[in-house]
């Protein structure tokens, strides 16, 4: 039976009803989690709509409100937690056609939500600027999806996380009220929709700050043991005079999963995968000598344009490569406290051994260099997974649980009352990405 919403959509709108395409566009990389897989495998939308203008987004929003049809916003579907999977069917709003870079000024750009990060950089670099941070899915991810579902990434060693003040300047948001309209949020107001999984507004346009575009050399340094590699990573993060974009540290056997890099990853060695400004390489090499590391791979920025990008072996791409070799592997997301000695990192590394393989990404938290971990885990049972999570938490590590699709439970474990209140205003019927915001679920159930 045709969806009742179809009669309310303009015939000029790009609507996808083919079941195979709709099923494909209803998914992300939730299958990284053996917990999420059975929960989300059967969740699909009724249809997909691809607007090409903000006016068309308003039309879709109006039709959904009129028919009380759930609407789930989608970027490129590169998330890992089911952020864009429609739990209650309805409409997928695919924003990939809203992909213009509207303007670029020194240090800032205005872009539509469906613009790919790599496409934005291609334009901004002509003026000497680039996106401050990006996920390892940089080539395919969209800026709206990154803001809605991401938290940081390559570049966070310099600029911190997306939620930090100043890392998002402004957004335009379409509401889901009886008469949908456009709101512009600026400054701290952007936090109402930043990392909200599209549960409380449809982001159509953003103003994003940019950083200076350096020629980035790609470097791999190997070490005889993991903790030396980890301490090297921390020291490099603290070396403010060395300009860097990526500090990714991998305990053995993780390097063995990187098929394309096997010639430069010696057996049983820990590896640091790095992006360093070419102008800083001389000072960087002195630091490598200080820690007894060996440079096994180095590409100039020009050479790095060819072949696999080193960044695509880091952050969540590390998990992807490992699962290509062993699909039984899953992962954790851990933030270790600031500690110059890395004592808790060392304890967890020794305590779990190869059951929880250590993978660190260094970034800045309130100006301090901290190790975040995306450990690979040999999954056995849900009970053992929860036991490992509890052990980390009791020892003082924070777990951002990647095995839940609930916004708060996978993040700070606290309800963001500001975001819930904003949802009550702009999405009073709870139609946007239903089932993902615990604060809203508890509000409507009470």
TrEMBL record:
GO MF terms held by the record = D-lactate dehydrogenase (cytochrome) activity; D-lactate dehydrogenase (NAD+) activity; FAD binding
Q: What are the residue boundaries of the FAD-binding PCMH-type domain, all occurrences included?
A: 40-213
Sorted alphabetically, the keyword list is: FAD, Flavoprotein
Superkingdom assignment: Bacteria
**One GO BP annotation of this record:** lactate catabolic process
Note the SUPFAM superfamilies from the entry.
FAD-binding/transporter-associated domain-like, FAD-linked oxidases, C-terminal domain
Specify the protein name: FAD-binding oxidoreductase
> Lineage, please?
Bacteria, Bacillati, Cyanobacteriota, Cyanophyceae, Nodosilineales
